[in-house]
Amino acid sequence: MKNSNDPYTIITQALEEMKIESGSRFSICKVNLAKLSRRTGISRAKLRRFRKNGFKDLPHGLSGRKAEQTVLTHYSGIIDKLLAGGVKNSEVIYERLKNEGYSASIGPVKRYIKDHAYLIPAQRTLPQPQENRGRRYCTEPGEAFQMDWGFTDVLDYSGTLNRAACFAMICHHCGKRYIEFFPNAKQENLFIGMLHGFKYMGIPRYIITDNMKSVVIKRDMNGQPVWQKDYELFMKAACFQTKLCKAYHPFTKGKVERLVRYVKDNFLAGRVFMNVTDLNEEAVRWCNEKNDAYKQEIDESPSQLHDRECIKQCGTFQNKEELLAYMCPERRISFDGFVNYEGRRFGVPCSYTGKIVRVNRSGRTISIYSDDMKSCLVTHDVTWSRKDRFCKDQYVNAEPEEVPTAPVRTRIEQLAEEASCDGAFDRFNFDVAEAGR
To answer: Terminus-to-terminus CA distance in the chain, angstroms?
Structure first.
């Protein structure tokens, strides 16, 4: 008899052997359970239950029933909300659940997503397949970084829909990445994001980017780029060069294009935050986690490959004076003593007599410096509120006072008050009485 763990298979083989031995006298209803028990090793009590069903393999009576509570019972609302928002990546949902206290494996999460796929909104447009095939563009270690902007909508606590910009930079050789969020994609934010990326990964020989307005104005008759003047000065100060992609051909910088899409599908999916500083702190932690993760295409983590090969060929970021100026963009003081930075107004002390200041956001602090960067005038806490932020000694007096706007040419005189002429009250003038004595 063949070995098997299935009791029905064991019993069927034993009955076949007993039928051959007994011949025509064999009856399945009158089978000797003691003899069958010795052949199969199954107890007679269990064989007696099997005989009631005619030794047929029937489904269990509880099959098809599900437990009232599972490991995902208390987390189903979170998963349903993410699925309704279009988040169907099991790893993203699994990370969100772990932050909420989920301690089981990712398997139940995958099965739940499969069973509740109807909650995912239908995809309205299908991606068009690529018709051509080309060779991937490769570079040497530390030779080139790719950079680009990505955009996302932000629904704030008041219900207002704003738009935020995500600066993305990635090493073309190893795939080490860096992202940072800004309220807009102005050139000054581009410089700040690039400097922070250089501080995080080093300065490459080339930057590969598309034809954005902050970088290039046009191309001359020979096809050579005419750089934007401020960006050209920035390249010289940071000691790197720029290569432009072919217009309407994003495949040249496909790594950063894929990074922007990965950020939207993985990092931003279901993300909530308090302010832009909190969002950037989460972004740095996410970059460190993904850079330390093993990648099959390079057979190690991007951080290990970057530290072993790329960083040796990259330039070292130094806090030079000309680079610090790009970290602190200029702002003009308004007539009421405020400067506008990232869509918010911050107060400046009235003791500063200049008209231009420099503003820098570092961590959770907004610092306002003098025009020559020699002194810090005031600091403010980073906030997402649109209210004006006043500072101490922003105004000379608490109450406003009007001052003449034209030269004053009139003059009047004030005389001393005359003594009283009524003698009846002289006795009450003690100064006069003392003088008489």
So the answer is: 148
Tokens describing residue 56: 């047929």
Distance CA 181, CA 185 (A): 9
Q: Return all residues near 338 (Cβ < 8 A) that are at least 6 apart.
A: 345, 346, 347, 348, 388
Residue pair 214/167 in contact by the 8 Å Cβ criterion: no
Q: pLDDT confidence of 425, banded at 50, 70, 90?
A: low
Q: Do 159 and 193 meet the contact criterion of CB atoms below 8 Å apart?
A: no
Burial 152-162 (b: 16+ CB within 10 A, else e): bebeeeeeeee
Task: Summarize pLDDT for 144-167 with one digit per residue, the tens.
Answer: 999 999 999 988 877 888 888 999
CB-based contacts of 208: which residues, under 8 Å, 6+ apart?
144, 145, 146, 147, 172, 242, 243, 245, 252, 253, 256
Q: Which residues, at least 6 apart from 385, have a Cβ–Cβ distance to it below 8 Å?
A: 344
Q: Is this prediction's pTM over 0.90?
A: no
**Amino acid at the residue 129:** P
Give the C-alpha separation, 315 to 78, whole Å: 45
Q: Calculate the CA 191 to chain-centre distance.
A: 19
Largest CA distance in the chain: 162
C-alpha dihedral, 135 to 140 to 141 to 142, nearest 10°: -100
pLDDT in tens, 6-53: 788 888 888 888 888 888 888 877 788 888 888 888 888 888 888 887
Q: How far apart are CA 104 and CA 79, in angstroms?
A: 15
Phi, psi of 34 (to 5 degrees): -65, -45
